[in-house]
């Protein structure tokens, strides 16, 4: 079979298939600070795109523009679907979205997590998505309650020391 008429990239074309980031099917709860951050990120991406458009030169620039356009579409959808929660106004007797939770394991190691929106989650900073398994275990509990944190390296039993909203 001849491949004479098959169009193949010649190395001088931008990527056609930029993978779109998937949108979560869950409600898009977000803290007010998280929404401000998303809007700032969107603004920064738009500025970067405009800068690149002013100086379109080469394949790498075209590919970066396509990636930025995909990021912008994603952020626009996330901001449009956002359900902001002002955690500073919350005062609950149990743990919910926005709570800053202090925990301790049986060895005395302490953990601190804040339950936030999916777009805000950053485990290294102690920010857990409300949809994560640990956050789902925490929701509805109060100080003195325990939960089991199921991790690939093994389960850890944690006691809730305190929580607050800020």
Task: Briefly characterize the structure.
The protein is an alpha/beta fold and 166 residues long. It has three helices and seven strands; from the N terminus they run βααββββαββ. The chain has a five-stranded mixed beta sheet. The protein has a two-stranded parallel sheet with strand order 1-2.
Describe what this molecule looks like in 3D:
- With 166 residues, the chain is of the alpha/beta class.
- It has 2 domains: 28-84; 87-165, Roll (Chitinase A, domain 3).
- Helix content is 31%, strand content 26%.
- The chain has 3 helices and 7 strands, in the order βααββββαββ.
- The strands form 2 sheets. Strands 5-4-3-7-6 form a 5-stranded mixed β-sheet. Strands 1-2 form a two-stranded parallel ribbon.
- A hairpin with a 4-residue loop joins strand 3 and strand 4 (110-116).
- Helix 1 runs antiparallel to helix 2.
- The termini are far apart.
- The mean pLDDT is 88.
Features:
31% helix; 7 strands; alpha/beta; two-stranded parallel ribbon; 2 domains; single chain; 5-stranded mixed β-sheet; Chitinase A, domain 3; 166 residues
**CATH architectural type of the largest domain:** Roll
Supply the helix-strand structural class: alpha/beta
Shape: elongated
Instruction: State the domain count.
Output: 2
Q: How much of the residues is beta strand, in percent?
A: 25-35%
Report the top-level CATH class of the largest domain.
Answer: Alpha Beta
According to CATH, the fold-level topology of the largest domain is: Chitinase A, domain 3
Largest sheet: 5 strands, mixed
Radius of gyration computed on alpha carbons? 22 Å
- The spatial strand order of the largest sheet comes to 5-4-3-7-6
Low-pLDDT ranges: none
CATH superfamily of the largest domain, by name, is Transcription elongation factor, GreA/GreB, C-terminal domain
- Overall strand count: 7
Overall pLDDT confidence: 88
Q: How many alpha or pi helices?
A: 3
- Percent helix range: 25-40%
